[in-house]
Amino acid sequence: MSAVIGVLATLAADLSRAKRTRQDSEHHTRRQLYADYLAALARTRNHLRLAARSAHTPPEERARKAIEAFKEGNAYELRYQVALISSAPVIEASTKAFRALRDLRDLIEEAALHTDPGYLELRDRWEERFAELRTTMGNAPNTFPRS
Questions:
Q1: Which residue in 85, 87, 82, 95 sits closest to 132, CA to CA?
Q2: Can you say whether the dihedral through the CA atoms of 42, 48, 53, 57 is positive or negative?
Q3: Could you tell me which residue, 23 or 45, shows the higher pLDDT?
Q4: Least CB-packed of 15, 52, 70, 85 within 10 Å?
């Protein structure tokens, strides 16, 4: 009988350790993806800012730079990865931030400069959404959502 209790205790300890290891791995994976996604959004935003500040560049070239910023920023790909492993609040905040950045890109494509009132309004909206996303990610649960 004591042998059975010993085996069960060892099994319970092994299962607990395996669960903790899996949770630690999931936490690390999510945090790394969140950091990569935030960096991609920030990088894209910086390239958009540079395009909007190029007052002496023809509008067509600024539009091309804005489009390229989105392609090269890698935010699209990472956004979908974030959606696969995140809770609903993170996905919602991610969508809002991404759309705010996309709206900024669209405005630059329409020849807006960094001094235009519409640009300033969308820039402020982007900054608010980006801050909300960072906060939401920081408060996210430490485990992957289960379906």
A1: 95
A2: positive
A3: 45
A4: 15
User: CA-to-CA distance for 137 and 32, rounded, in angstroms?
Assistant: 11
Cα separations in angstroms, 5 against 8, 11, 18, 146: 5, 10, 20, 32
- Residue matched to tokens 């958009």: 48
Going by the DSSP 8-state scheme, the letter that residue 74 receives in this structure is -
Q: How far apart are CA 59 and CA 55, in angstroms?
A: 8
Q: What is the pLDDT of residues 72-89, one digit of tens each?
A: 989 989 999 999 999 999
Q: In angstroms, rounded to a whole number, what is the distance separating the alpha carbons of residues 34 and 76?
A: 13
The DSSP element (H or E) to which 16 belongs, if any, is: helix 2-52
Predicted TM-score of the model (pTM)? 0.81
- Closest-CA residue to 107 (of 68, 75, 59, 73): 59
Q: How many angstroms separate the Cα of 75 from the Cα of each of 62, 102, 115? A: 20, 11, 25
Count how many residues are written for the chain: 147
Closest by CA position to 48, among listed 117, 102, 125: 102
Rounded (10°) CA dihedral 30, 27, 89, 94: -20
